[in-house]
Q: What sequence folds into this?
DNA sequence: CTGAAAGCGCTTACAG
DNA sequence: CTGAAAGCGCTTACAG
């Protein structure tokens, strides 16, 4: 039942070659003689051989695994963003034979890399005050951020042009006739929150509109609902900095007797699943999270292979998805 | 910059002891002499030693990692259930020093275990036709299912008493005066879908109520919306087999001019985040997914340590969470 | 209680 | 193109 797994040694014996040759066949080294290769392949399949990863890792010094690091508070697993990142990462990681390890412990991350359990990490939902990005870059450990870093550290990151996205929202609201604008912001200790607010303000100013109302939110549904209660009554164009918050904003607007989009037009940000569950369906700024996640993996793998290469960043363009709320 | 990591060997040299002794200290073997232990601990901290996991895995034959296996279609990462499982698993896995590996490739799973990359796996969202559970159990590989298996295979699983949960919903609807009941089911090729429907039917019969309307859903929001359109107009009590579906059902009900709860009372299932985003907030049957996930990890770890032990199952009790929809 | 030594299962220069 | 051999960094009987 619990018989020992087949080793390279046994395959070599069956095939009548050396372990080195079997290893070469397994790893697809091109120089192996055709006939020999076939003999070995046959031996592999008859023995049911499967290489032991720990042994390989020990000599190659590669874990064959990357980490997806969440903030310590576990609420973020419920954020739709998380699922989108995962579904963007999985398909690109798979053909590479790399594992995706989920962790919520920032404390563990450095050790996990040092122990050789992780080749590198992707950090999502980082706060400006988070020491981890700097820690990792200082130690020259492979890391990719899912947004512009809060402090100017040389680090590889992927982002969407957040400010441009906010401008897209404003332009649309204005085009639809809105003049008294307001925004529900994201958390301002994170760069996406900051950049969306900045982009919003700049666009409003560019249109020569009066100073907009700004109410603070935190990227959660409840935060959105709370913020909505603090909105001035005469707003006719609202930019909510995330769809999840918007799903909390809309019922409050309805309670306050405001019809969407007739009385107030609303644009969200993300184009995540909650946008569709909104009533009415939410017009929103789309960020291509799945593509961004795939790019993060590529950049990370690149950094794992060449840690000395300079850091870089990739910024995606947002697009507007028009539905019924604006 | 890229200096070689510190090894046991070096720590031993610094401490003036053998590698074996350092290893014992690192692994907390109690028999080490107090003074020696202190010398070694000091050497560990001055050298900044961190054990290499691959080397350890190679001899212990333990990956120190378990897999969370999603179905191949990636839609399920957007299901709120997924996030709840992750947030239940993470805290219990952490003190154990075990990694959580996410995978959506059923094909890979068996190999990953054989390669020693995974000590065992937790399977979620399995369909009755899914060959993986049987495959794994046959090979005597450690596996835990997140629900009763569709076919009677000897397998370890955790479940909530789905039928009892549905009965809770029916009892509540009836207590609130509903008499013309209906249900939107989950996918019937999965046991939770089957069991919730069975429990619903049995409870309706127990109350002596007429044959209820049964409309098929698939645990998605869109599926819920579609199902809602097929509901008879005179229903006054509706059991929707998941909160996510309910969030799709409610807007359709509203469109059809039905007020909730005045015209039709609605009870969901799960008590997941979408229940709160519903308008009105959803009365629902709570399944303690986080606790269930924690239990799955415990059972899995147990099986990894003693694969020959008989399989077992743990069934949690559902509870009713009353909000405004019923 | 401690150490010398074997061994886990691979990969990879190095010869030939 | 192939093989003998060293070595990756640990753990763990086995002596003493």
A:
């Amino acid at each position: 039942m619990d018989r020992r797994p087949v080793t390279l040694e046994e395959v070599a014996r069956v095939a009548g070659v050396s372990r080195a040759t079997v290893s070469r066949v397994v790893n697809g080294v091109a120089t192996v003689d055709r006939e020999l290769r076939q003999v070995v392949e046959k031996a592999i399949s008859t023995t049911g051989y499967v290489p032991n990863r720990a042994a390989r890792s020990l000599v190659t010094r590669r874990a064959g695994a990357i980490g997806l690091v969440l903030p310590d508070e576990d609420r973020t697993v419920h954020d739709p963003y998380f699922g989108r990142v995962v579904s963007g990462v999985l398909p690109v990681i798979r053909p590479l034979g790399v594992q995706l390890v989920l962790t919520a412990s920032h404390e563990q991350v450095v050790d996990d890399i040092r122990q050789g359990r992780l080749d590198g990490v992707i950090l999502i939902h980082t706060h400006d005050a988070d020491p981890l990005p700097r820690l990792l870059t200082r130690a020259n450990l492979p890391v990719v951020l899912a947004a512009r870093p809060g402090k100017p550290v040389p680090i590889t990151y992927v982002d969407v042009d957040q400010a441009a996205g906010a401008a897209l929202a404003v332009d649309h609201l204005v085009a639809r006739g809105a003049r008294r604008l307001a925004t529900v912001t994201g958390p301002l200790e994170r760069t996406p929150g900051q950049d969306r607010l900045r982009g919003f303000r700049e666009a409003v100013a560019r249109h020569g509109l009066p100073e907009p109302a700004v109410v603070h939110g935190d990227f959660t549904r409840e935060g959105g609902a709370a913020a909505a209660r603090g909105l001035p009554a005469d707003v006719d164009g609202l930019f909510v900095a995330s769809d999840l918050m918007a799903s909390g904003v809309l019922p409050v607007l309805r309670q306050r007797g405001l019809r969407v989009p007739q009385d107030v037009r609303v644009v969200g940000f993300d184009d995540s699943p909650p946008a569709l569950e909104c009533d009415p369906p939410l017009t929103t700024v789309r960020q291509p999270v799945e593509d961004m996640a795939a790019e993060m993996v590529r950049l990370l793998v690149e950094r794992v292979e060449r840690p000395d290469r300079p850091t870089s960043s990739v910024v995606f363009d947002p697009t507007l998805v028009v539905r019924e709320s604006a």
Summary: Chain B has a mean pLDDT of 93. DSSP finds 13 helices and twelve strands in chain B.
